[in-house]
Amino acid sequence: MSRPEPSPLAAHWTLDPRVTFLNHGAFGACPREVLALQSELRARMERDPIDFLTRAAEPLLDEARARLGAFLHADPDDLAFVDNATTGVNTVLRSLALRPGDELLTTDHAYNACANALRAVAEAAGARVVVAAVPFPLRGPEEISAAVLGALTPRTRLVLLDHVTSATGVLFPLETLVPALQAKGVDVLVDGAHAPGMVPVDMGGLGAAYYTGNCHKWLCAPKGAAFLHVRKDRKTGLRPLVISHGANSPRTDRSRFRLEFDWAGTRDPTPFLCVGKAIDLVGGLVPGGWEEVRSRNGALARRARTLLAEALGVAPPCPESMLGSLAAVELPAGREPPQAALPDRDPLHLLLFERHRIEVPVYAWPGPARRWIRVSPHLHNSEAQYRFLADALREALDRTRAPATSA
After folding, report:
1. Residue 362 above 70 pLDDT?
2. How many separate helices (H) and strands (E) can be counted in the chain?
3. Comparing C-alpha atoms, which of 335, 337, 295, 330 is closest to residue 314?
4. Is the whole-model pTM more than 0.90?
């Protein structure tokens, strides 16, 4: 099979043309113009690190937060830059004053790293993690709401919910779940790792106590750019993972929240400072701006899911209305089980990469008996690339189904 062409917009990225890159959802991919800005900022920092880090960085961070706040419909002062969404989740969890018997609620669709953070803080405090079982395949968002609300108890202190699930690619109904939970006096921490740039995010309208998301995925900022949004009434007592000079700064011109989160020791702030450029650049690649970016990516994800489901002879696991630009398709039962839990160690993943140079995740969820392939298109992808993947999957299935020959 000949390698298909990506989208013409792929010229804005530095992706290897020898690889059919179909895993934008893992770590994103940063356009060359954004990388060029980051290089300029790093060069400026290294010409005079004192000037850059102690004088220039603060107003530049303010500007970057303002750009991100406008995109998220958020007050910039309620935003803190963090390295990734997992850092944001850990920041909130480690600031909780948990007591023995308290419960932290999440679902079985939660991201593994965040589930590990829940278990770690619960074990340290004598609390426990409650996992609501959300069916998958599922018929509609009401099944998610029923599972989450049905797992609440008087001891529930916090609920960790995905905005878009990583393993299953499902949009959770936050617009109904968040107010329902808060009406019961339970705070919500949203893991929005995939949401910014994939779906509209309105912090003011959502009203969750805490929301963390990545800028390096669908916004296409450099790696290490993410944010934590904290509702104003929950800022007191929330501390960064690294306690530094801001803890006892005598300054009165900035809030304690700002002073603590903006300086966590020496680190490279350039990923944060490129967020505005990424928003402008990617949104400017198509005539309809970010609305069209989301629409194009979502349409290609739905088309890709259909192509793979047909190639595998399986049914799509959820309605199209519950998808953003991430979608999972289950591999047929009876395939060779994975040799490890990591998506880059599955035999089918290795075969697709080594034989066809296709970069796509294949993984087990929620356990070894069920395996999935996930698509996550962005503007650099084309439908032809997903047809190529579907053909490669058919070939792989034919090879494994071929009858054994006797000597």
Report:
1. yes
2. 15, 12
3. 330
4. yes
